[in-house]
Design brief:
The chain is an alpha/beta fold. The protein is built from 7 helices and 10 strands. It folds into 2 domains: 169 residues, P-loop containing nucleotide triphosphate hydrolases (Rossmann fold, 3-Layer(aba) Sandwich); 68 residues, no CATH class. α2 packs parallel to α4, α5 packs parallel to α6 and α6 packs across α7. The chain binds adenosine-5'-triphosphate.
Amino acid sequence: MSTVHEFKNTILKVENVSLNLGGNQILRDVNVDIRDIVRPGMSQGQIVGFLGPSGIGKTKFFEILAGLIKPDSGQVLLGDPLTPVQVGRVGVVQQSYPLFGHRTVLGNLMVAAARKGIPAAERKAKCEEMLAHFGLEGHAHRFPAELSGGQKQRVAIAQQLLCSDHFLLLDEPFSGLDIIMIEKVCELLRSIAALHEHNTIIVVSHDIESSASIADTLWVMGRDRDDQGNIIPGSRIKHTYNLIERGLAWQENVMSRRDFHDLVDEVRGLFKTL
Ligand SMILES: Nc1ncnc2c1ncn2[C@@H]1O[C@H](COP(=O)(O)OP(=O)(O)OP(=O)(O)O)[C@@H](O)[C@H]1O
């Protein structure tokens, strides 16, 4: 598959974000950005895999990216042109998939479409289009309690995609799924990225292999050490891997490639130093 591409405008920018909690520095001067990737003849969104050891600050950074909590300093800018993040612009898919239990699958999507301001006359068609894209047409009139975990996850992703502004944050989307389901989720996320030029998906995960198999970029969060090897409090994005440059983005069967496994080993090795 061709990797001819250009990086265009920055569509997400994190500037000098720091966060303290309970007297501890959690994040320190985090600076990172995502640029719109353009490929000839297709709409190509962005997928970032966001990795880091447990307790490093991924969840807190995720909440700041979504505008759910404010950093002590710094800011997050989104869109084209860039403007400060506000709650609702970034779709957040939590592991628990919170859906309205008293509404059907279609009803849940209709609420999201209304929240986004899609005109009433167009809502049903838009929601049905989403249901078809997510392979949920047969479940439109079911209630969340009647769905499997994987089906609930797809409804939650569709719902967040409908009511947000091209940005989706997913918290551990592969957790608790078997290998076939993980492949399906990977396929779904790739297809969402291809739905719109600006669609940008950030996947927070402990699963290095699955994240790397769909990402164009990996962010690894970690802390610095001083000259004596002591940890300096406050995490930042310590390493950014450009998988396009490595020829590993947008490749069929990338997981069967030796250079892909070398990358996964490299990231795993890096974790031990963070
Ligand atoms: N309300 C709080 N007050 C003080 N410290 C907190 C608070 N919430 C989180 N922390 C600390 O902030 C750090 C980062 O937590 P966070 O949940 O962001 O880590 P994480 O990378 O998402 O971890 P995991 O991968 O295990 O979910 C942890 O050391 C945690 O103990």
